[in-house]
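Subject: Sanity check before I submit

Could someone independently write out the structure tokens for this chain? I want to compare against mine line by line before I put it in a report. The sequence has 249 residues.
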Amino acid sequence: MSDHENPAEQTQRLPKFPPRPTDTAQMPVLLIREHAVADEPEPAAPPPPPPPPGAGRGLRIALALVGLVAVAVLSGTAWMLLTGGNETRGKAVPASTTPQGGYGDYEFVQQAEQRDINCAAHAYTKVKEFFSERPCELLVQLLLTTRSKEGADVVVALSVVRMPDAAGAAELKRLTDTDNTGNVNDLLREGRRVPNGPAKLTDAGYAAALDGRAVVIAEADFFAEDRKDQDLLKRIAQDALRIGHQHAN
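---
Independent answer below. Compare away.
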């Protein structure tokens, strides 16, 4: 460049470049939001193994048994409330065999037992009147069965009456030993039964004994109504008294 050139000429000899565009457009703004990164879900637990076959049925049976037990408990409670908790009246006991021995050496099987303190409610005619005037302390009624040496089936109705004193017991025995004065009801008369046995006593053998302030009364009869043998029935009734003595005191 010459020292004599003016600034305008110097400017004309400079390299020419295309004009730079004016940067008037606004750059896009990126908005960056911070998001909480959710924890990755834990893997689901594997499903429980299917119950073994019949498990559902067993559960239903178990629940049904629990329900039945609950009903039984509630029913028993209601019954005791209605009856005053008297568990001995009308109570049947499991059959049990008494040891052999006694007058006729007969073996007796106890079929039923009933207890009450109201003897007048379990007697008839003059014996009932007697108890209305002189109440007893306890009445035990039993049904026994045995078999004669000839193989005949026999039912025995046994009654044990405990009186307040020995004098009352002696008077009661005199009354029951007398014909046409009534007696204490046997359990057949009150609707109890023995397997395959008769519905009532028809021609029974009779025996009675005193035991302190108690009276023991026994009546024996055949299962078969057409069988007759009063002597045999009286021997069986006499032998059955030993069972009644066990309940006298």
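---
OP: Matches mine. For the report I'm noting this point. Residues 99-246 form one domain.
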